Amino acid sequence: MIKIRLKRFGKKKEVSYRIVAMPSTTRRDGRPLEELGFYNPRNDEIRLDVPGLVKRLQQGAQPTETVRRILEKANVFEQVNARTPS
After folding, report:
1. What would be one Gene Ontology cellular-component term for the protein (predicted)?
2. Residue 80's CB: how many other CB atoms inside 10 A?
3. Does the structure show a pLDDT above 90 at 2?
4. Cross-strand partners of 28
5. Among 19, 24, 79, 80, which is 20 to 30 Å from 72 by CA?
6. How far apart are CA 25 and CA 34, in angstroms?
7. Parallel, antiparallel, or unpaired for β 34-40 and 14-23?
8. Residue 78 pLDDT exceeds 90
9. CA quadruple 41, 12, 49, 33: dihedral sign
10. Measured between alpha carbons, how far is residue 33 from residues 42, 49, 78 in Å?
11. Which candidate, 42, 48, 40, 38, places its Cα nearest to that of 76?
C-alpha cells in the first residue's frame, strides 16, 4: 500500500519535513516515489503540490494521521471529492 507520510530532514532540533508518497514497508527516510510537499513545524510553513496529492489520493494512497490533519487544514480532501469522476 502507498502511504503519504512525512520524511524528516534538517539539522538536529531544527527539523522540517517533506510530505512524500512511498510504500508503507519503506523506512522513514527511504527513497520516496514522489515528493508532494513541505512542512516546517517551527513556523507552520506548508507548501503542497495539490494536483499531485489529489492524484495520489484518488489512486488509493492513505495519509498518516499527521499528514491527514495538514491536508484537512489546506482543504485538499474537498478537491479530491470534487474531482471524483461520476
Report:
1. ribosome
2. 17
3. yes
4. none
5. 24
6. 15
7. antiparallel
8. no
9. negative
10. 26, 14, 24
11. 48
* Whether the Cβ atoms of residue 21 and residue 32 lie closer than 8 Å to each other: yes
Query: Residue 67 corresponds to which cell in the numbers above?
Result: 499528514
Give the span between the Cα atoms of 64 and 68, in whole angstroms: 6
42: left (phi over 0), alpha (psi -120 to 50) or beta: alpha
> What is the enclosing helix (H) or strand (E) of 28?
none
Cell of 74: 489546506
pLDDT in tens, 15-52: 999 999 999 998 888 888 999 999 999 998 999 999 99
Kindly report the backbone phi and psi dihedral angles of residue 55, in degrees, each rounded to the nearest multiple of 5, phi listed first: -60, -45
